[in-house]
Amino acid sequence: xxxxxxxxxxxxxxxxxxxxxxxxxxxxxxxxxxxxxxxxxxxxxxxxxxxxxxxxxxxxxxxxxxxxxxxxxxxxxxxxxxxxxxxxxxxxxxxxxxxxxxxxxxxxxxxxxxxxxxxxxxxxxxxxxxxxxxxxxxxxxxxxx
Length: 145
What we know:
Residues 1-62 are annotated as: Disordered. The chain has two helices and no strands.
């Protein structure tokens, strides 16, 4: 009977150990599931943050492109206007030279002296004119990109 009692006791001890092992395994599985759930939630949150950041960066990129396009249009307009002004300067200079030639021809033909001054280089190259120090008026529209 002692051996049957030992056998029952051994079986009972084995069942308890198995139950403890089973309980630890169940707790570990629950812990792993919870950890996996938290990990998925963090990944989902990070994905949402990245999607939001991507959207924001696309908007900023679009704004930058619009500003670049605006500056480029303004540059082209100014360049075209400068070309027109250069052509006008060339035309007016040619007219002035022609008028000076006619005036000189008339002076030579009539004998009346005419004092013709040469066209100053500063009129042909206005960027070399001496400029007094004075403030430059600017509007906020000039600073937009």
